[in-house]
Amino acid sequence: MPPPADIVKVAIEWPGAYPKLMEIDQKKPLSAIIKEVCDGWSLANHEYFALQHADSSNFYITEKNRNEIKNGTILRLTTSPAQNAQQLHERIQSSSMDAKLEALKDLASLSRDVTFAQEFINLDGISLLTQMVESGTERYQKLQKIMKPCFGDMLSFTLTAFVELMDHGIVSWDTFSVAFIKKIASFVNKSAIDTSILQRSLAILESMVLNSHDLYQKVAQEITIGQLIPHLQGTDQEIQTYTIAVINALFLKAPDERRQEMANILAQKQLRSIILTHVIRAQRAINNEMAHQLYVLQVLTFNLLEDRMMTKMDPQDAQRDIIFELRRIAFDAESEPNNSSGSMEKRKSMYTRDYKKLGFINHVNPAMDFTQTPPGMLALDNMLYFAKHHQDAYIRIVLENSSREDKHECPFGRSSIELTKMLCEILKVGELPSETCNDFHPMFFTHDRSFEEFFCICIQLLNKTWKEMRATSEDFNKVMQVVKEQVMRALTTKPSSLDQFKSKLQNLSYTEILKIRQSERMNQEDFQSRPILELKEKIQPEILELIKQQRLNRLVEGTCFRKLNARRRQDKFWYCRLSPNHKVLHYGDLEESPQGEVPHDSLQDKLPVADIKAVVTGKDCPHMKEKGALKQNKEVLELAFSILYDSNCQLNFIAPDKHEYCIWTDGLNALLGKDMMSDLTRNDLDTLLSMEIKLRLLDLENIQIPDAPPPIPKEPSNYDFVYDCN
Question: ELMO domain: from which residue to which, for each copy (predicted)?
């Protein structure tokens, strides 16, 4: 007979005593359980004690999290959070440097636990730490020659504890003084400072900027881009990551009118080329965190284009001169007519003819073509850049098309406007960066005007594809679809430079796109006859079983997930895997992203599959209903899922990408006996069914399969040919 669901078997340790094996009744108050444990070891004043996990987390057991205790968990009897907080509050004010250092080390470790953090904060512990940072720095500077390691460690532990305590979101960031901000900024501005101090200082500045508008203004006054640049030129990727995170935070929170000014400063300081040299092309792999920060910087840089993208052209605006300039460069303005009485009409007629050759929709007043947003004035900016910086290519395209028949002409003006709009959609110009995306493109860090250069490559591609398709004006939308496919396929290969991107596009000619489409179409349309559909129906269950086994095998391998919080810099990792017998989910926290297989003994927590009540996704997940920055993020919502078990208990996930999300939701649904409904399952089913059908029909190549089965022959007139075995 299985034990009652409310009884949990655990081991409890106490220093200097043998561990106790004990059954905990989850219905009993936690204070009663602690009293029972204390009585067993003859310890008085049970209210001064608490239970905590004996693993590396050392988290306290509370009424809120006690349901996370599983059979076989090892707990430790220890002093209560309130007592511990009081003792540490006194110890960190000790006059003995060694005692103070040890106390700060313990505080940095314990502050990760929200229960302890709450007690320490209640004692006004945050104010004490800020005072220590403000006042202790002078002493640190005076004594650093004598006791540099000791004071460096002390400051590092102080800042670590501060970061961990603030991470819980209990105290508002708006409460800090200018003096404290100046001190933290001074650590970042120093040329030679301990790595751990620099790390924590950058993390604090990032959080200040992201969490408070007032602090953003104060930090922006203390920190300049020039002071941050040297940290990018080092070899420590973690410091580089924190530095780019601070730049991103300043960029993100800057008022609209300040962003372009800040972008100009970044260009002056050659931030792009420094990142390209010391980060992207450094002789080491880029980790996920750095990839995310580079992606954020890429998005924020492209978002500077949003203002021009959403600006309509005023037909009476002085910027009409840009259109005149486009015409002048293309046709080198034949000799201007004299100001005779008929010259104005002659000039209008000539301009109208030239604007038609340039491919504008409105030949009389091309400014009207730029009243649609997006792309607005951004399209005109791109056209002028192309005309000035790639003049030969521009003139060639315009003259080539103006010499063709009207119906075969590729309209440069209309193409440029639609292409700019398409590129803005591909790069999601104007959208906020995702919390989880790492999709940065190295080629955009190789040029100061990367978007304009991107456009120049793509407009030449469009003209080439138009010729290859022998398109007419009616085929305009078809050409744009092909160009979009070419660009998207080339971007997925993550070219390292714009030249490499250009060569990828050379290999993706219209003929090649047709082959790819034909291959994909064959997979979808080849087997639509009734006999084939019946065969598909027959073999589909075994294909689904194959997919199910693959999903479960992937769950057995396990996946590393992130614990996202308000300050992404201190992300924690945790790992979850299914047991080989498919009966238990093992999970636990990790210090860092695993490089190889995660040992079984490092995953202390268990969840029996039999206890799972449901799997929910997206907005239905408990952690997506909570207030916070992630709530509004569409991409995070699309990667979120939760396992609901017991009463009001859940295990919350945010998948690293869409593929892992599909693998896990499919696998969990398969464990619960439900259908696998993900897009990945549909794609896998189509692919595997198509392959299986092709294999089974190999012997029938070039044989016409009839739509109806052959007729059953008439019965024979006699059965004399039948052999009687009796």
Answer: 318-491
Q: Is the dihedral of CA 411, 417, 420, 425 positive or negative?
A: negative
Q: Which helix (H) or strand (E) holds 575?
A: strand 572-578
> What span, in angstroms and rounded, lies between the C-alpha atoms of 295 and 438?
6
Q: Residue 694, class by beta-carbon neighbours within 10 Å (0-12 exposed, 13-18 middle, 19+ buried)? A: middle
Instruction: Summarize pLDDT for 185-221 with one digit per residue, the tens.
Output: 999 988 778 888 999 999 999 999 998 888 898 998 8
Span 613-641, pLDDT tens digits: 999 988 888 877 654 443 346 677 788 89
Phi-psi region at 646: left, alpha or beta (left = phi > 0; alpha = psi -120 to 50): left
Q: Are 288 and 436 in contact (CB under 8 A)?
A: no
From the list 579, 605, 588, the residue with the least C-alpha distance to 10 is 605
End-to-end CA separation in angstroms for the chain: 58
Place of tokens 């059954």: 23
This prediction has a pTM of 0.76
DSSP state of 223: -
Residue 38, SS3 per DSSP: helix
CA trace torsion 464, 465, 469, 471 (10° rounding): -80
Classify strands 74-79 and 49-53 as parallel, antiparallel or unpaired.
Answer: antiparallel
Tracing tokens 């104010």 back to the chain, one arrives at 127
422/696 Cα distance (integer angstroms)? 43
Return d(Cα 592, Cα 494) in angstroms, integer: 26
CA-CA-CA-CA dihedral for 624, 630, 633, 635, to nearest 10 = -80
Tokens 């790390």, residue located: 199
Q: Following DSSP, what letter does each residue of 266-294 receive, concatenated?
A: HHHTTHHHHHIIIIITSSSPPPHHHHHHH
CB distance 621 to 652 below 8 Å: yes
**13-17, 79-83, 87-91, 579-583: which range is least confident on average?**
13-17
Alpha-carbon gap, residue 245 to 569, rounded angstroms: 8
pLDDT, tens digit (0-9, with 9 covering 90-100), for 438-486:
889 999 999 999 999 999 999 999 999 999 999 888 999 999 999 999 9
* Residue whose tokens read 């220590």: 132
Burial of 580 from C-beta contacts in 10 A (0-12 / 13-18 / 19+): exposed
CA distances (Å), origin 551, targets 96, 103, 580, 657: 58, 48, 13, 16
